[in-house]
């Protein structure tokens, strides 16, 4: 087996131990004579898998009892719509912070349901920073304040939880959930697609404070209604059982790694050395203000753009793949989520140094 270091932004690398266990369990799960994906989602075996995944997520993130955990479909993009549909609660306005392309997508979807006030935006700086907190204008009449914890394309990450001036705080954590410990009690709602730090695509996790649900707009489709999904154990329709099982395996793996404090320490080491290598070179550069650089997605450019194709080809030959930047911004991006081993980052850095020595 020749696995590569896969720097894709998502779907992205999964822990090898998880893949090997899934392979082992594929044809005959726990002596049932069938695979997980052939079982009824309502049978006791699959319900056990689902319950264990929720318990493990609650343990890893220390989720308080007054929060519901939902495992849904439609991705984070579905949540861009589900959030206003569920959380407007009779209000007509919401408030969003705009820190990049994913914030903008969330904003334009919310605009289909209500008016969106922009509390702050870093668009003018080319999304290279997070707007100064003192300058945020949070509308007290808004139903909630929304922000994107990690901009997957731009490589900008909040290093702490912003103050929401009393509004329920809603966060898109698709690309950094489970990368560090988190104080869930600061949030009204968190959502995250699984395909970066939690498992394969096809499943999205919603963590929502109980008192905020049960007032969805009348026209809300049942599968997007948090209260109905909470009451139905996230099984209002047939859930993506295999994806849910794989997500559960990733959570078990995270616990084996020592939990989120240990995972965070490794993520800090990985990101610090990669940024140090970029900053210390004449060939590579990263445009993001140091205080808000992402630990998960590290975009970089080459001073000599004519070398871009050679860089990708030589990286691929060295087993380092999917380093292209997002099509909307170009350049390069190394996504180094939880499942990227530290040796993967070390190998990338050694490759970049050698490439600079040869061509720089
Ligand atoms: N938000 C963020 C921060 C993302 O990175 C992505 C996916 N790249 C999405 C939302 C959209 O997720 P999905 O494709 O699961 O709808």
Describe the protein's architecture and organization:
Residues 4-348 form the Aminotransferase class V domain. It comes from Methylocaldum marinum. L-glutamate binds at residue 42. It holds the Pfam family Aminotran_5. The modification N6-(pyridoxal phosphate)lysine is found at residue 196. With 360 residues, this protein is α/β, with parallel strands linked by helices. The chain folds into 2 domains: 16-256, 3-Layer(aba) Sandwich (Aspartate Aminotransferase, domain 2); 258-359, Alpha-Beta Complex (Aspartate Aminotransferase, domain 1), CATH 3.90.1150.10. The protein is built from 9 helices and 14 strands. The strands form 4 sheets. The protein has a 7-stranded mixed beta sheet. Strands 11-12-14 form a 3-stranded antiparallel beta sheet, with helices on one face. Strands 1-13 form a two-stranded parallel ribbon. Strand 6 and strand 7 form a beta hairpin. Helix 1 (16-25) crosses helix 6 (241-256), helix 3 packs across helix 4 and helix 7 (259-279) runs parallel beside helix 9. The longest helix has 21 residues, at 259-279. Residues 10, 75-77, 102, 148, 152, 172, 174-175, 193 line the site of 4'-deoxy-4'-aminopyridoxal-5'-phosphate.
Radius of gyration, whole Å: 21 Å
**From the helix content, strand content and strand pairing, which structural class follows?**
alpha/beta
The helix content is: 25-40%
CATH architecture of the largest domain, by name, is 3-Layer(aba) Sandwich
Q: Can you tell me the residue ranges where pLDDT is under 50 for at least 5 consecutive residues?
A: none
What is the CATH H-level superfamily of the largest domain?
Type I PLP-dependent aspartate aminotransferase-like (Major domain)
- Beta-strand portion reads 15-25%
Taken together, the total number of domains comes to 2
CATH topology-level name of the largest domain: Aspartate Aminotransferase, domain 2
Give the end-to-end Cα distance, rounded to a whole number of Å.
34 Å
Number of helices: 9
> Could you name the CATH class of the largest domain?
Alpha Beta
Main sheet? 7 strands, mixed
Heterogens = 4'-deoxy-4'-aminopyridoxal-5'-phosphate
Count of extended strands: 14
N-to-C series of helices and strands: EHHEHEHEEEEEEEHHHEEHEEH
Form type: globular
């Amino acid at each position: 087996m020749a696995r590569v270091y896969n720097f894709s932004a998502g779907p992205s690398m999964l822990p090898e131990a998880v893949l090997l266990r899934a392979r082992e369990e594929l044809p005959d799960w726990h002596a049932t004579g069938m695979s997980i994906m052939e079982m009824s989602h309502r049978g006791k075996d699959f319900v056990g898998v689902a319950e264990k995944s929720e318990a493990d997520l609650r343990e890893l993130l220390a989720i308080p009892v007054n929060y519901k955990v939902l495992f849904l479909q439609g991705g984070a993009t579905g949540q861009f719509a589900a959030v206003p549909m569920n959380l407007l609660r009779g209000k007509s306005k919401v408030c969003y912070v705009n820190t990049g392309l994913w914030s903008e997508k969330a904003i334009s979807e919310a605009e289909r349901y209500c008016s969106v006030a922009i509390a702050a935006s870093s668009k003018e700086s080319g999304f290279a920073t997070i707007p100064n907190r003192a300058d945020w204008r949070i509308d007290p009449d808004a139903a909630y304040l929304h922000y994107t914890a990690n901009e997957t394309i731009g490589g900008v990450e909040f290093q702490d939880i912003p103050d929401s001036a009393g509004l329920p705080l809603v966060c898109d954590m698709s690309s950094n959930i489970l990368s560090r410990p988190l104080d869930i009690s600061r949030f009204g709602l968190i959502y995250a697609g699984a395909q970066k730090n939690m498992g394969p695509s096809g499943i999205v996790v919603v963590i929502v404070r109980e008192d905020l649900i049960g007032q969805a707009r009348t026209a809300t489709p049942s599968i997007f209604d948090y209260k109905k999904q909470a009451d139905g154990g996230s099984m209002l329709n047939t859930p993506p059982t295999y994806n849910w099982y794989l997500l559960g395996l990733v959570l078990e793996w995270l616990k084996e790694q020592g939990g989120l404090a240990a995972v965070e320490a490794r993520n800090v080491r990985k990101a610090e050395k990669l940024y140090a290598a970029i900053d210390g070179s004449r060939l590579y550069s990263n445009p993001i203000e140091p205080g808000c650089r992402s630990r998960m997605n590290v975009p970089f450019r080459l001073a000599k753009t004519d070398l871009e194709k050679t860089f990708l080809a030589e990286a691929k030959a060295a087993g380092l793949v999917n380093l292209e930047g997002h099509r909307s911004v170009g350049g390069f991006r190394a996504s180094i989520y939880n499942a990227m081993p530290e040796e993967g980052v070390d190998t990338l850095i050694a490759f970049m140094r050698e490439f600079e020595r040869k061509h720089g």
